[in-house]
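seq as requested:
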Amino acid sequence: MNEALLEVKDLTVKYVTDLETVHAVNRISFSLGRGQTIGLVGETGAGKTTTALSIMRLLPERTGKVTGGEIRFAGQDLLAMPEHEMQAIRGEKIAMIFQDPMTSLNPVMTVGDQIAEALDLHNDQGRSREQIQERVDEVLSMVGIPPQRKSEYPHQFSGGMKQRVVIAIALACEPELLIADEPTTALDVTIQAQVISMIRELRDRLQTAMIMITHDLGIVAQTCDNVAVMYAGALIEIGSAEDIFLGGDHHPYTVGLFGSIPNLRSKAKRLTPIPGLMPDPTHLPEGCSFSPRCPHATEQCRTAPPAVYTRGSHRICCHLFADREGWKEDA
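struct tokens:
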């Protein structure tokens, strides 16, 4: 079993304003081993990006607050760490590919200078200017961009090429943990496949642990060792890729996600969408957050929060599993 590189325990995050409090992440726990990949899956508003920003300590300063839990990276408590120490980790040990490459790059700096800036900021090895430029050429080649283009500006690149530059910046310092926040959302299908293949290849070559944030279960199936399904700020199901894609038991929400995937072998002409919308995060339901949309909801689901039930590495938070064979309540 891989040594735990990242441990998130009972993480709770709120966005607090003068008017209301948004319950963005609610007591989630998961761990990630060195060289492993975990997929965070769920609809928009599930809390996936907030989880990533909490790990990076990049929550909005005035409104975003971690109100409970802990995040440990390589044995260090990130939430208790002074900001200057976190700056040394951010970018070098933990890097993030942000969701929109169009806004992630500085339009008045060349792409080469933006990669060099990351290397210069974390220049623990005492690289000379020439060595930094050699590394810039190396990482550009790594993501399939000719080094000769390092003197060009972001507006001279296509959307797919900009995403490759963002990935190059993230990988420049060879981080131990890479967080990819929906890295293919703004790209067309052909470029999506190329970017995912490239990320997977680079992860395997560098032995980088990765958190893949996406709403696309197809991407998760291609890249992830473990899968965590988020809904309304909570982890409602977590397990290995085999548990999620080949196992027979699932949370009703996960079943709904699979029902929304096109299947070329199926004779059904229409997909089966999940009815309703994600609950208002300022006023979450009293019981199970999914109960207003769940076809199996009972009165217990509407009034009492469900316990977590386990079978091996597979964990599901749902009242339906209280009496299901092979499942036991997590103490």
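The longest helix spans residues 189-206.
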